[in-house]
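**Archive record**
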Amino acid sequence: MTEDPDLEFTGEVVEWRGPAPFHFLVTPPEESAWLTRVMREVTYGWGMVPVEGRVGGTTFTTSLWPRQGSFWVPLKDAVRRAEGIELGDVVTVGLTLRS
């Protein structure tokens, strides 16, 4: 990620248990509203929004999960290990939409 991100926010790392536990950041209301407006242009189905992210010095690719009126940013184990991130930590993420 060499340019300014399309959006950036700070949030608490939360866990959602599906078949396996996952760690996420949840977009705040303003960022969620913006993503809802632009998602039709970039989604590849089911509302998933492909992004390139950055937390600290670590960049990664993922897709945002639409859920309960917001978007959930998956934090892969490799990203959390590289940045020393634990459940409940407050971190800042920058996201750039991919098409």
